[in-house]
Structure prediction request, 265 residues.
Amino acid sequence: MTRPHRPTTHLTVLRSERLTPHMLRLVLGGPNFGAFVDAGHADSYIKLVFDPEGRPYPEPVDVSHIRATETRDRWPKTRTYTVRTVDPESISVDFVIHGDAGIAAPWARAAEPGDLVQFMGPGGAWSPRDDAEFHLFVGDESAVPAIAAGLERLPEDAVGAVLVEVSDHPLPLPAPAGMTVEWLVRGPAEYSPAALADRVRSLDLAERGDVSVFAHGEREAVKELRRAFKELEIPRERLSISGYWARGRAEDQFQVEKRTEAGKI
Prediction:
């Protein structure tokens, strides 16, 4: 099957901001910003484009052409990130920083004003429903940018809960007065995919009326959440739920596994 042509957008790093010891924000803009078309969704995302190791391509990179003419091992690498904010002349993208592993996070940590950024997108499909009686946001560090963007779009009288599991250093999440924000800080404890699902089960969602759910994060944790929502009889159409990443998997393998039994949510 022929892949659709997906042009790349080319922006410039304007500045970087350290939000926590493990989260970094890059603000992107520059003379090409007019080419960026806002998707208009709270979960808007872009796919950053990186050259494959040992094979730099001339900029700007035509990803669709390379995929049509080169073998897979020569394709550029892509990494998916939420567009945290869209402003008149810039966007911001937040990166979770843990060690030197991976492609995107080390690049973001080393990025300087003037560096070129190439990406495909934006994509996205979800924004919170104004008519929901109870809004539930659930996720880990990787979901914080999308959760924050969703909270900013809630009506002032919104009621609900936010549950975020992090290793340390919670990030302030402004929310309407009727929204409770709870951070589940793991600290040195061993990671448990069931932690968020167990907390969700304690919320008495059956008594909350029309519930709208945004639940994203590590794949196995999201599978546990999916089981919990099924037990609680939350209708599928009220759920925005997916894995953003998987422990022990680079994004390339994670994306391939999405189409297998292991990747099903």
